[in-house]
Write a structure and sequence with these properties.
Helix content: under 10%
Strand order of the largest sheet: 1-2-3-4-22-21-23-19-20
Strand content: 35-45%
Structural class: mainly beta
Oligomer: single chain
Number of strands: 26
Radius of gyration: 22 Å
Distance between the termini: 38 Å
Shape: globular
Order of helices and strands: HEEEEEHEEEEEEEEEEEHEEEEEEHEEEE
Largest sheet: 9 strands, antiparallel
């Protein structure tokens, strides 16, 4: 029998009991490194019909870890998920502020992001490693997997993996690809990037007004196998406005991109193809993100898969414990579990990624992803009747860290 077909305990009933112990369902084949320690819920509250928030603790070999759980029942016609994000892609903001500003009732931090740099003279962009879709709009694609930040990922996964929700209102873990091209009388150029801090070697990417004002030089640094590889010395940039090339140059620029313009950046072979374009050429640029699953995603955030079909993925790290954030979904795609661990001692023994996968399965998730952790891990909640959301997990840095994005739970947004 597949784990996803097993009957699981009712999380809602456990939470409403106020203080309950949840064991993973019997009969599930566990990874050798997973923990069988019960999860004890220590508090719970209903934020809105279909949305609950609670705290729990787990005894680990390293001590007690406290965690926080937001659940969203997407069967309620007024409950939905959405991308928490700053005004632009190459920007960061704390989760509580994004939750408040966008009108969410609660949320957690999202994907790993470009927070530090080894390339001399190149500033971190603050943008995420994986794709982003917000309200049906494709905001960005994924950097090459070797250029991501964060811990190692399971074999067979990549930066293209996401946690999202389809137009049918069901959440799922999926994988995205980019389809796009630049067409002119001189030929067609394939696109391999959209608003991302790193392009594949020999690639061409497009930057839109959604990117913001950050420098585009970082997109030509590193390689497909080494994030710290030198920046390319063979680059080219083309600005297109109203379908016409308005400027060209050999170095990626910075600054605001008008809403009616697009900037094309190429490196190595991609630079050679862009070099054929000159000011005055008519150009059409098209791009879209395509998911392996169906139907189309209206919301997506990058995440590293850790649980699939009710079973932890092979190759998950079982040694390094840390403060972590995760998102999971029930087998029917209608119940979402957002987990954030406490950030400060004595309640911050943390989980390994293998333990995190086991926790998500115990809560009822059939599929789940690991999100950014450490000082980025944040859960923010806006109490009923309150105008602002506050962070609840005592982030490990002592204060909230500004992050690239997050997952928000919304009520009445439809």
């Amino acid at each position: 029998m597949r784990a996803s077909n097993l009957v699981r305990p009712s999380l809602a009933l456990l939470l409403t009991a106020g203080l309950s112990t949840l064991m993973a369902p019997a009969g599930i084949a566990r990874a050798a490194t997973a923990t069988d320690t019960p999860v004890t819920f220590t508090s719970t509250e209903q934020l809105a019909p279909g949305v609950t928030y609670g705290s729990f603790q787990v005894d680990t070999p390293r001590g007690v870890t406290v965690g926080y759980l937001l659940t969203a029942d997407l069967r309620k016609n007024k409950v939905s998920l959405g991308l928490l994000h700053p005004d632009t892609i190459a920007q960061r903001k704390v989760v509580s502020a994004m939750t408040t500003d966008q009108g969410a009732i609660g949320g957690v931090n999202g994907d790993f992001f470009n927070i530090s740099e080894t390339h001399v003279g190149v500033e971190p962009t603050g943008s995420s490693s994986g794709p982003e879709i917000a309200d049906g709009e494709d905001l960005k694609f994924a950097v090459p997997t070797a250029q991501r930040f964060g811990p190692g990922i399971a074999p067979g996964t990549s930066t293209r993996d996401v946690f999202g929700v389809g137009v049918n209102g069901k959440a799922r873990v999926d994988t995205l690809s980019l389809t796009g091209e630049v067409r002119s009388k001189k030929g067609t150029i394939a696109l391999s990037g959209l608003n991302q801090y790193a392009l594949p070697v020999d690639g061409v990417g497009v930057f839109t007004s959604a990117w913001g004002t950050a420098s585009r030089v970082r997109s030509t640094c590193g390689s497909d196998t080494d994030r710290n590889a030198p920046c390319s010395t063979h680059t080219y940039e083309v600005t297109v406005r109203h379908g016409m090339v308005t400027s060209v140059g050999q170095t990626p620029g910075a600054g605001e991109i008008p809403s009616d313009a697009e900037v094309l950046v190429g490196r190595e072979g991609g630079a050679d193809t862009l070099d054929d374009l000159v000011v005055g050429d008519r150009v059409q640029v098209d791009e879209k993100l395509v998911s392996e699953g169906r139907p189309k995603l209206t919301f997506a955030v990058g995440g590293a898969p850790i649980l699939r079909a009710g079973a932890p993925l092979a190759g998950l790290d079982a040694k390094t414990a840390a403060v972590r954030t995760a998102a999971g979904v029930s087998p029917d795609g209608k119940t979402v579990y957002l987990v954030a661990l406490a950030g400060l001692a004595p309640a911050s023994a943390g989980f390994t990624i293998a333990e995190l996968a086991d926790l998500m399965r115990s809560l009822g998730a059939d599929a789940a992803v690991n999100l950014d952790g450490g000082g980025s891990t944040t859960v923010a909640v806006r109490e009923p009747g309150q105008a602002t959301a506050t962070a609840r997990n005592n982030p490990s840095g002592g204060v909230e860290r500004a992050v690239a994005n997050g997952i928000g739970i919304f009520v009445g947004r439809h």
